[in-house]
Design goal:
Blueprint (H helix, E strand, L loop, with lengths): L1 H5 L11 H18 L5 H21 L12 H20 L11 H16 L2 H7 L4 H35 L1
Helix pairs in contact: 2-4, 2-5, 3-4, 3-7, 4-5, 4-7, 5-7, 6-7
């Protein structure tokens, strides 16, 4: 069961770039949830993946030399769902019908920005990653998700508040 949790049902075994596959799986689930009218499952999924990750990751890496094996992707799932929550919830509140067709930047930008922060590891993301323990495995992706979510909201605000009126004006 621990292996299924940390690899997100085996997705962490996909190559190359298992972290990207884990992130894409989270995006796909978020879009499906939104399209099914269950947008609130996205932040709920972020909380569930976080709790399960903090429980399962220490057990999965206990006694291993590698404290952050690439097949562990529950951290990417949690961070990606956190990032998506920043765009999915406002769209849901405003009654946007389709995330996939009508508001595709709302899932593309959090995905791109999350992967950027997860790979680049600036500031708190890198600090958490350098911990070298199970908590660090989870925390670096949660910080990356937080930064990606905030950045997505800022970019959406700039586009809708400044750029779009200027282009249409």
């Amino acid at each position: 069961m621990i292996g299924a949790i940390v690899t997100f049902g085996g997705i962490g075994h996909l190559r190359p770039a298992p972290g990207t596959w884990g992130s894409l799986a989270a995006v796909a689930l978020a879009v499906l949830a939104y399209e099914a009218g269950a947008a609130l499952l996205v932040p709920l999924g972020a909380v569930l993946a976080t709790v399960l990750g903090f429980w399962a990751v220490p057990r999965a890496i206990a006694g291993q030399q590698d404290q952050d094996p690439s097949e562990i992707v529950i951290d990417e799932v949690a961070g990606q769902l956190l990032a998506l929550s920043f765009t999915v919830l406002p769209l849901w509140r405003h009654g946007v019908d389709s995330l996939f067709l009508g508001a595709w930047p709302a899932w593309v930008m959090p995905f791109v920005l999350f992967r950027l922060f997860d790979i680049w590891k600036p500031w708190l993301v890198g600090r958490a990653d350098r911990r070298g323990d199970a908590a660090g495995v989870m925390l670096d992706d949660l910080w990356a998700g937080l930064f990606a979510g905030i950045s997505s909201v800022i970019l959406a605000g700039l586009y809708h508040g400044a750029l779009q009126p200027w282009l249409n004006g």
